Amino acid sequence: MCEVVGEPPAHWATVPFGIPLRNVRCRIVAPSGRDCPDWVAGELWVGGANVAAGYRNDVQRTADRFVEHGGIRWYKTGDIARYWPDGTIEFLGRADNQVQIRGYRVELGEVESALRTVPGVRHAVAAVVGTSAPTLIAAIAGDPGEVGDVTAAVVNLLPGYMIPRRTVFFEQIPLTANGKLDRRAVAALLEPGATDHEDGAARNDVEAALAGIVAEVLGVDSVGVQDDFLALGGDSVLATTVVARVRDWLDIDHALVSDLFATRTVTGFAERLGAGRLSVARRNDCRLSPPLPRGRRIDRCGSPRRGLA
């Protein structure tokens, strides 16, 4: 492929592969085996007269990488790319950089491409930390004052499950000895406790209770107090459920769905509710029961003023 580039246009987040050379065919293929439409990421297949017969003395690798389709021999590059409407192919990353987040297949290169469109971002890396509850985190090289709210900047570019739950800023992204991105070093720096960034721990009982409620409603293992409710997959129906449980469990009648949508984090929601004046103890001095596993019910009486026995 080739791309003639002078000064890269300002709207480019990356320098693309370009367009196929003569006698070279390219497909962007989805996991289903179908061709992807413009702007949709998939694996790049290359076909044509320049495709080799296979790997020398490696039958298994040849079978994995070379396929016949439509009477053409194709080479599966392992690169994740997408077509622009003008026929240009943009490289997004490698297939081995695909991860699973809450059951969704996420291409880290696609996340990084969106992050690089944010003004002030010099370089961006998406990484997953944690094993029991994998968390998508963004490492940004740039001035936090210049970059601003990364989540708000990419919310219209990525689906909720692909929006990083946390952003960490660095002066420079770690590179290997040959100048390539060192993903292992980045992931190590993003592990909880590895940076001076707060990891989202609750500061008081009310924040802890709210985080537990939100996590249970969203069906995730845990929620940090700075995590974005919408980025985690929250919507108006789930927000209504959260508020209903807050009113019931914390006895806070003035909790509103609009408060949750306006703040979108546990910390902001708690401040709206006046966490400093609240306690997780009910007015009848009964302590708040912790959230139970999904599907289980708790047997307890409601507040007398609600008319329950």
From TrEMBL:
The UniProt record lists the keyword Transmembrane helix: no
Keywords of the record: Ligase, Phosphopantetheine, Phosphoprotein
An MF annotation (GO) of this entry: phosphopantetheine binding
Required co-factors: pantetheine 4'-phosphate
Domain of life: Bacteria
PROSITE patterns: CARRIER, PHOSPHOPANTETHEINE
Annotated ranges, domain Carrier: 201-277
GO biological process: amino acid activation for nonribosomal peptide biosynthetic process; secondary metabolite biosynthetic process
UniProt cross-references to Gene3D superfamilies, sorted A to Z: 3.30.300.30, ACP-like, N-terminal domain of ligase-like
GO cellular component labels: cytoplasm
Pathway(s) annotated for this protein in UniProt: Siderophore biosynthesis
PANTHER family: NONRIBOSOMAL PEPTIDE SYNTHETASE, PYOCHELIN SYNTHASE PCHF
The protein, known as: AMP-binding enzyme family protein
Native organism: Mycobacterium kansasii
